[in-house]
Design brief:
Oligomer: single chain
Helix content: under 10%
Low-confidence stretches: 1-34, 38-42
Structural class: mainly beta
Largest sheet: 5 strands, antiparallel
Distance between the termini: 55 Å
Length: 186
Amino acid sequence: MSCLLNSFFKVLKSLLKHWIVLFGLLSLTIPLRAQSWPMFRGGPQQTGVFPGELSLPLEPVWMFEIQEGVVATAALEKGVVYLGGRSGIFYALDLETGTEKWSFDGADEIHSSALVKFGKVFFGDERGSFFALQASDGVKSWTFQAGAGIKSSANVQGDSIIFGSYDNFVYCLSAQQYRRSWFDRK
C-alpha cells in the first residue's frame, strides 16, 4: 500500500511540476470578470474565504504550461490571472481562455504570491528583487533589492506594501513609487 501511495504522489508531483490547472472557474455563480482574489488568501485579512459559490463537479476550464512549475498561488483581478513560475517568468493570463496577455522575465525563481493593487502587480523572487509591474501590460514600474530571497507574499496597508525577506527584515514600501516608508538596516 505504501509503495502504491508513493507512486501516486510521484505522478501527482510530476504533473503539478509542469502544469497549473484552474478548476471550475466558469462554474462560479458570480460573473467571471467580476471576480477578485488580488492577493494571497484573498485580502489583507488573509481569511481565504471567497463569497461566491461553486457548482459541482469542478471541471478543468483550461491549462497553461509553465516550465519548471509553480510554487506560489495565483492572484485574480479584472479577469486576469497573475502568477510567477520557478523559471523566473511572471505571467498575466486571460481568466476565461488561459491565453497569455503578457509575461515578464524576472531575475530568479518566483516563490511569492502576487499582490494586485493600485493598477500594479507586486511580487518578489529568490534573488531578493521585489518588483512593481503595471498590471495592464507588465511594464516594470520599479524594483527594490532586499538582502536575500523573498518567499513571503506581500500585503497592503493604505498605500504601503509590506513583505518579508530571508535577510531577516520586514519591508514597508510606498506602492506608487519606490521609497521606503519605514526600514532601518543598522
